[in-house]
Amino acid sequence: MEPTPEQSPHHAYPDHWEADVVLRDGGTARIRPITTDDAERLVSFYEQVSDESKYYRFFAPYPRLSDRDVHRFTHHDYVDRVGLAVTIGGEFIGTVRYDRINEQGRPASAPADEAEVAFLVQDAHQGRGVASALLEHIAAVARERGIRRFAAEVLPANTKMIKVFRDAGYTQQRSFEDGSVHLTLDLEPTEKSLAVQRGREQRAEARSVQRLLAPGSVAVIGTGRTPGGVGRTVLRNLLAAGFTGRTYAVNRAFDEGLTTLDGVPAHRSLGEIDERVDLAVIAVPAHRVPEAVADCGEHGVQGLVVLSAGYAERGSAGRELQRELVRQARSYGMRIIGPNAFGIINTAESVRLNASLAPESPARGRIGLFTQSGAIGIALLSGLHRRGAGLSSFISAGNRADVSGNDFLQYSFEDPDTDVALLYLESLGNPRKFTRLARRTAAVKPVVVVKGARHSGTNPPGHAVPVSRIPDATVSALMRQAGVIRVDTVTEMVDAGLLLADQPLPAGPRVAILGNSESLGLLTYDACLAEGLRPRPPIDLTTAASPQDFRDALAEALADGTCDAVIVTAIPWVGENGNAETGDGEVLAAALRGAAAGGPAKPVAVVHVEIGGLAEALAAASSTAAPRTRPTTLAGRPATTPGTTAPGASATTGTPPASPTTDTTATTSTAPTTDTTRPTAATPTPDTPSATTPTTPGRIPAYPAAERAVRAMAEAVKYAQWRRQAAAPGKVPEFLDDTIDEPGTAALIDTLLGPAPDPRGRPLAHDEVRELLGRYGIPVRPTLPAPDAEAAVAAAARLGYPVALKTTAPHLRHRADLGGVRLDLPDEEALRRAYGELTDLLGKPAELLPVVQAMAPRGVDTVVRASIDAAAGAILSFGLAGAPSELLGDTAHRLVPATDRDAAELIRSIKAAPVLFGWRGSAPVDTAALEELLLRLSRLVDDHPEVVSVALEPVVVAPQGITVLGASVRLAPPPPRGDLGPRRLPNY
Questions:
Q1: For 152-161, 430-439, 470-479, 916-925, which range has the lowest pLDDT when averaged over its residues?
Q2: What is the DSSP letter of 680?
Q3: What is the dihedral sign for C-alpha 985, 322, 975, 896?
Q4: What share of residues in the chain are helix, strand, coil (percent, to 5)?
Q5: Is residue 802 reached through a cis peptide bond, with omega within 30 degrees of 0 on the bond before it?
Q6: Do residues 173 and 151 touch, judged by C-beta distance below 8 A?
Q7: What pLDDT was estimated at residue 759?
Q8: Element (H or E) spanning 171, and its range?
Q9: H helical segments located in 335-430
Q10: Which of 195, 268, 346, 397 could make an S-S bridge to 353, C-beta 3.0–4.6 Å?
Q11: What is the pLDDT of residue 124?
Q12: Bridge pairing between strands 303-306 and 335-337
């Protein structure tokens, strides 16, 4: 909305304050600044407010607004006087305003940093979280304008408003003066206020998806008059699934005499339907969609599934149509799945919704599935159905213009019918939020992700979201840090999902292998080693083994305290007549299920070759009814103290780290503490959904190849290990000593950037880098320029021998293999000789830019980096210097702020980590000092977002201590942090 000429041109209309938000009940609303054009809307809004609410607002009867009031409440300078409104359908449902005041409570301007705030919400919309959302946004606006405190006067009887202030999480003071409650709120965000904000966001967004998946009534707009077509197909699928709600067919082209179609009421528009429709499925050409959306909005529809194509997948013109579609739907408080969607499914017995193009509704199960591709959605539904797996819910988001994978995670976190969340994603609209939500969800149930378009560097057609420039390997590492099970293909996603949905989590990596084929057992054994598992020697039951032999062997393996999981391999067995028995898989399946039900809770997977009916019989154990439950716990011994030993290493020997999947909680021959946790939940906490575990035996997943079964088991092992560690998360150290000077660093950065910083940023000079890093306890060994031999000798005399002579020209930096580095020069003679050799071999000093540096203790050369990606946030990286990281890509990554556990895992997760822990008889280096360096650098970039890039190379890690020999830093104006601001829906 554009400002009018009456408004100050110095304070232009702040369109960046506009935001779409999800309210407590799942509906959407728009928050925007109030302008002079809003006079009639304000008057209409006020007329719909009850006398009681008006009394609470003005402390006296106030039946109507005067012209002076209307002028005052619609004319703002957007600095000292600001008003925001919440709108639905273009009409106000709530307002808030602040007026800057001085210490005496009189109107003021900056530098006064306090403002009086007042709210008013229509009675019909109270209880939807309108005032809470307004408080978040007006507080953000106030902070932007230099206001640090809000003052509010509230009548004691206005308990709802007092609760809004009390529950916001801000630091506040309360007093009772002159018959009213006086509240003062400090607007600086706190951990509590951020937690409150995110808790409200989670509940609201989960509710918005739940409204889409569990409607009481559905209208299919665009239902064809003849069989066939998209709309008629959806209607047929709704009826075939047995939808428990009411269904309507809508098409403006219906004959006036047509009253039913396929047994459901037929209407020409939503206005002809006597009740409010909850969900509309739109299947009309793109040019008719705006008309359908307007009809839905005007008749109170809560959500839309738009199957129509012709939007962003068609280019820039289609993208603008898509944005307008989202704007139109949100203006009415509706959320959208699509456009270009395949549909949605909810198999809950109380809903039985199949509002999709899938001809066959999947069986009821415990897997939730989200996909951004209709074609992939079809493939996944078919694959899950073929393997007997059921779903709890399914969303195919198409172009994902509104409802996204983040919303699906919010819903899955709370959904009691979902034990595993599977997501096929082609783009991440908000990676920061995704990792935050994924970490929280993965703590209670597995999240399995396939990321498409990994290497294109662009988004797929139709996905108008910011493109992250970080490599795919980094994305994968960050997902792993958040507990996400990242797999490469949809087949692997189904394989992992089946195991996680129906089997308990393994307590460790020890795998028993048994079967009636020695060769298949050996293949499984090799696959386990390749995946980092610890297989026991295969048990060969011989081809004469009967189903009872399988049952006995499986029961014995499950009872063995030295194994954590079992993989059964089976080929057709030899019958009494000497012929191979390829059928009767049900007998073997019953035997395996019986053994699994009677033994300890350990995961079991089956690899089979040409045994008819086995996979189907194993899958048939899946129940569609809610299982009997018992409370769950997380098993596992305390994790190794970070920074003391390598994972899997003895504290006394310092042996190299074990495979990343090795679980050190189960390394002895004694029976480990068994993790009986199903992958459905962690121990319940006040902030997590109630966690329960099925006790009845579930289906046993079957795989046609050993590699697939082992890979799924390996993912379960790694996820279980992450769950145990997540139950006792690491800490971000405070560094309470005087080695960190946060205020001084902030002042230095302001000075270095200057009053008008270049948006592209600026690299720091060597001395500036040393000063900046030194303020966070990161000393950089000094280097002195050596433009000629005499200067080199003078520098060495100043630094002390022995010294190193290095070139710093960009094409030679860190390239010792090209001869640009001379080390351990003990005296002046050696230095002069090395200087002459260097210039004779590589070029003139002006080209080489040589420097002299004091020698550091011998150790392992490493590289530590931190950078800020606009989409993903600050990332901390570590690797060995040279070929391991540059050529082989052996680099590990973690999100900032890093905890002590993150730092310990970071240096142990690279493939070359054994070099740090005494590989081949070398002395172990000081990894504790290296971890401290990582934590200090993490703290620096977290405290000061203007530090957009840091590279420490090389960092020499010696047996005692570390030395930073080279460093570079780039400063720039900090990128916006949307994850710390008020709640808002993204605008793609």
A1: 470-479
A2: T
A3: positive
A4: 35, 20, 45
A5: yes
A6: no
A7: 86
A8: strand 171-177
A9: 374-386, 405-414
A10: 346
A11: 95
A12: parallel
Q: Tell me which residue has tokens 């569609």.
A: 624
Helices and strands in the chain: count of H runs, count of E runs: 27, 43
Contact 899, 886 (CB under 8 A): no
Cα(465)–Cα(454) distance, rounded to whole angstroms? 15
The whole-model pTM stands at 0.83
Torsion angle defined by CA atoms of residues 938, 942, 946 and 949, in that order, rounded to the nearest 10 degrees: 30
- Please state, as a whole number, how many other Cβ atoms lie within 10 Å of the Cβ of residue 583: 12
State residue 986 phi and psi, 5-degree precision. Answer: -70, 150
Q: What is the pLDDT of residues 566-618, one digit of tens each?
A: 999 998 866 565 555 555 678 899 999 999 998 899 999 999 986 767 777 77
Q: What's the CA gap between 699 and 593, in Å, rounded?
A: 8
Question: Which pairing describes strands 19-22 and 604-608: parallel, antiparallel, or unpaired?
Answer: unpaired
Read off the tokens for 252: 């403006």
Mean pLDDT of the chain: 86
Closest CA to 988 of 318, 453, 34, 521: 318
458, 469 Cβ separation under 8 angstroms: no
791 to each of 348, 831, 832, 965, how far by Cα in Å? 80, 11, 10, 20
Any idea which residue has 């890509």 for tokens?
Answer: 889
How sure is the predictor about 691, in pLDDT bands with cuts at 50, 70 and 90? very low
Helix H or strand E segment including 868? strand 860-869
Tokens matching residue 340: 């270009």
pLDDT of residue 729: 78
Ranges assigned E (strand) in 314-416:
335-337, 343-346, 353-356, 364-371, 391-396
Handedness of CA 397, 403, 408, 409 (dihedral sign): positive
Report, in angstroms and rounded to the nearest whole number, the Rg of the chain calculated over CA atoms. Answer: 32
Residue 191 CB-half CA count within 13 A: 0
Give the phi and the psi of residue 306 in degrees, each rounded to 5.
Answer: -100, 110
DSSP code, position 816: G
Mean pLDDT of 436-464: 77
Angstrom distance (rounded) from CA 712 to CA 715: 5
Q: C-alpha distances in angstroms, 415 versus 202, 244, 348, 353, 503?
A: 12, 19, 11, 16, 19
pLDDT band of 683, cuts 50, 70, 90: very low
| Angle separating helix axes 490-502 and 706-726, nearest 10 degrees | 60
**Contacting residues for 630 by C-beta, under 8 A, at least 6 apart:** 692, 693, 695
pLDDT tens digits for 50-60?
A: 999 999 999 99
Decide the pairing of beta strands 891-895 and 873-880.
antiparallel
- Burial environment of residue 612 by CB neighbours within 10 A (0 to 12, 13 to 18, 19 or more): middle
> Which residues are paired to 249 by β-bridges?
220, 266
Half-sphere exposure of residue 93: CA atoms within 13 angstroms, side-chain side: 24
Residues 888-893: contacts with CB within 8 Å, 24+ apart?
A: 889/473, 891/473, 891/863, 892/477, 893/473, 893/474, 893/477, 893/478, 893/481
Taking every pair of C-alpha atoms in the chain, what is the biggest distance, in angstroms? 107
